[in-house]
Amino acid sequence: MAIREIRVVPDPVLRTPCDEIREITPSVRRLVDDLLETVDDPGRAGLSANQIGVSLRAFSYNIDGKIGYVLNPVLEETSGEQYGDEGCLSVPGLWYKTRRADYARVRGIDLDGKEVVLEGTGLMGRMLQHETDHLDGHVYLDRLEKEERRAALRYMREHQK
């Protein structure tokens, strides 16, 4: 297990849709271990595989003290609405109000190939949408209102190392 470096925008891996996991291999098991260890840090709600440079459909989460993962997640259902602050490990230091569904449900599998269903409202619902967006090659900035998105991109250009 290892805590992995977080990829940040504009790294192209963050804009590339991730591949489905077709076989549970030792490298997939190591990936899950790394995702779990890397998300286990205060303030981290979720982490997708492409955020650590691996283009496979997997993410880990850390919500209300519960840490877990899902492979090949598919966002099945959303409902309601929330509008609140959202940030991203791949967009460090920027928090913007982002519109999301309040409730979300994701279906995938675990390392044994058994079905996993994750669902929730509030922060859990937001995280499920945020991480599946990552796996589809999107970052939360894509969901911002036009003027906020412009301001965020301008800030990032001016403050990139």
Automatic annotation (TrEMBL):
Origin: domain of life: Bacteria
Cofactor annotation remark: Binds 1 Fe(2+) ion.
Keyword Protein biosynthesis: yes
Amino acids binding Fe cation: 88, 130, 134
UniProt-listed CDD domains: Pep_deformylase
Pfam families hit by this protein: Pep_deformylase
Catalytic residue list: 131
Keyword terms, alphabetized: Hydrolase, Iron, Metal-binding, Protein biosynthesis
EC number: 3.5.1.88
Reactions that this protein is recorded to catalyse: N-terminal N-formyl-L-methionyl-[peptide] + H2O = N-terminal L-methionyl-[peptide] + formate
EC main group: hydrolase
InterPro entries named in the record: Peptide_deformylase, Peptide_deformylase_sf
Gene Ontology MF term list: peptide deformylase activity
Cofactor section: Fe(2+)
Family label: Belongs to the polypeptide deformylase family.
Function: Removes the formyl group from the N-terminal Met of newly synthesized proteins. Requires at least a dipeptide for an efficient rate of reaction. N-terminal L-methionine is a prerequisite for activity but the enzyme has broad specificity at other positions.
Protein name: Peptide deformylase
Organism expressing this protein natively: Bifidobacterium santillanense
